[in-house]
Every structure is written in structure tokens, then in C-alpha cells.
Specification:
The chain is built from 9 helices and 16 strands. With about 425 residues, it is α/β, with parallel strands linked by helices. Strand 12 and strand 13 form a beta hairpin.
Length: about 425
Amino acid sequence: MNASVNIYGKRERGLNMNRLMPFLLTSLAVASIFSFFLAYSPNPIPITSKEALNSVVHDQNLQPDHDHLSHAAPVRLIPPPKKKEVCDLFKGQWVPDSRGPLYTNSTCKTIPESKDCFKNGRMDRDYVNWRWKPDKCELPEFDPKAFLEIVRGKKMAFVGDSVARNHFESLLCLLSQEELPKDIYEDSEDRFRTWYFPQHDFNLMKLWTKYLIAADERMVNGTGSGIFDLHIDKIDDEWGKHLPDLDYAIISDGHWFFRVLYLYKGNKLIGCVYCNQPNITRFNTGNAVRMAFRSAFKYISTCKNCKGGLLTVLRTFAPAHFENGAWNTGGYCNRTSPFGEAEVDYKTFDWEMRNIQIKEINDARRNNRKQFRVLDITRAMLMRPDGHPGIHWGNQWMKGYSDCVHWCMPGPVDYWNNFLMALIRN
């Protein structure tokens, strides 16, 4: 089969499982491989339901109290309007949808090789035929024309790791169905990149950062060890320096925190994660994540040169779905359909990571007048173990390893941009 043709056969529209648990890298070689793997490889949004929009409030004719108003005219009381129903777009389920995705690997030329699951041999196709259905309303379809009108003359950046890049790449494909962008900047490692949509004067940027905060990898004989020194009171300036130019900053991170980390404040060691050394305060992964996001949101809150209308969006933690092992111990993800909500385990680190991130952005919102919003994808993506490349990611250096962290394109990752469009519209 030619992988670049319309493989969907439809019109183009363009846990009973083991989790990825924190583990300690046991050798410098394994640490280096995993670093390469990651590098390359809620607040409800108010939506008025149709029922609420169509509801009519009628006057109520109440009979007078004859004991006290025997000579008065009848009293006509009008009840207060009914409150509009508020729909949580992020709480719902996946339902079948045979229309297929908005783009394919023939209509979007920028799909990365590692995310083009059909091209890399994935045979099942059902995973692209589901849509997200909130419990009390409908999630609007992604409209590339309308999205580009909203962001006309603006700059938007996705700040984070390779999963943030995955999100960025999905939006790029969706928008290219309306206007072909120009690739105007790319660094040597494809970690910082800018695409420009000239008809709408819109810049879409990817700003790479492993931890949001400043981090230095410890080197052993000139080779990266996979062990990092994190400075919790210093932002990673590689993305921070771009902040004053942005109108939208989509912030996310998380998967790099599951390794040995040494935490510093004011250049003083305050503790470590997974280090198991005497006389050093031990923190867990959640502590490190909390410190990093708190520092990032504080930096944004105190940005004096930033635009007054800067909108900061937290995209919550995107779960991995390794079964029967971790990424380097034979773990895989070969499911072909979503979970129902009853099958999701909310006692995992995925949900804990999401809760930590939401608490930090809520605290930031309370403490200042900056615009902060939450794009809460964790619940929906916990239900999509079928959405990862698995063994179908075309990597020549790590044969036999499954990618259960990133997401196929097209695929459920595209719905993150349905959420994003609904959020920035509101």
C-alpha cells in the first residue's frame, strides 16, 4: 500500500495495565538512550448547551393571598432567569465517528516520520475514527479558517518537551488545510522552530525545554549521564527570552522528571530525586514538578515586558500507556480501541501530575491579574491507549522499543486543538 494516499477509505476532512512508573536509570548507556528517545522520538470552559439556549422562561401567574389582599389586583411575579448550564469540555467519553480525520499523511506534508504511524506499518485504522463527546454538550469541531482569524496578527508558542512538539505539529497540520505556512526558522536540532502564515500574519513557534527551569546535564567522560542539576529559582532562558513577544504561550512538561535530579536554589543544593544519598534531602518527582511549574508561572506573572493580553495556557500531563514493562524492559502499547471511563485508573502518577500542575496554575491565577487558563487533556488521554505509535515509529537506532509516550498523527492528539480553539474563543 502506498502510505501517502488516502488510507482511510472515507472522505478526507482536510487499565488493566502497567503504568510508566518512576524508575532509576541503572547505567550511563540506558540513561543516554532514554534521553534520545524523549528528545526525538481544570477549569471548565463555559459552554451553553443547546437545551439551555432554547429554553424559554414563562411568566407565572400566582393567585393573591385573599386573607391580606382581598381588594388588590392579582400579583404577577416573574421568576429570575434560569442559570446557563456550564459544560466541562474535558469530562466525557470517546464515541465512534466514521468521518475520519481533518487531514491525512497525503494532505499534510509536515507530519514527522516518527508520528506517521500508517507509513511505518500500522495496519489497524479504527483509532482515527473516534471523537471526544463531553457529557453535557458538544465539543466544536476544529475550524482552521476560524482559528486563523482568531490569531490573526498574533504569535503563539508551544513551550515544553517533545510531547509539546507533538501538539505543535498537530496544529500545524490542521491549519495547513486552510493556508500553507512558510518555514522561516529552524535550529540545528529542530528544537526551536517557527512557521509563518502570511495571509493571516500569524507566527506559530516551538520552544523546546526539558524542565521549564534551568537545567544542566552532568557529563561523564564527555558523554551525557542522564542526571540533571535543576535550578528551581531560574527559568530556562531559551524559552523565557521569547515571552515578551508572545500573545499565546502553551506551557507543558513532565516526562523528563522521572530520573535522578539534583535540586538547587540560589546555587545551593537543597535536595534530590532518586539519588538515595545520605545527608541529602530526598524529594519525590511530584515535588520537583511542583517547583518547576511554580517558578515558570511566577516568571510569567512578573514579566514586565510581556504583552498585556498574553494568554498562558497550561496543557496538563499527557499519560503514557506502557503495558507489561517500562519502555526499556519490554513495555508495549498495542491496543486498538479506547478505554471507557470505568477502565481508567485515577490513582496513577499521571493523574497526580495533572493535579499538581493545575494547583500551581490556579495559585498563579489567584495571586495576580495575568490571564491563565487550563487545557485539561489528561482524563481524555488516559482513555486512549490506542493512540501511540508503539512499534510503528520508524526508528532505526532503537529497534524493538515501543513509543507509548508520543501520539500518532493524525490521531487523538488532534483533539487537543479542538480544546485549544474552544478555550481561546472563550
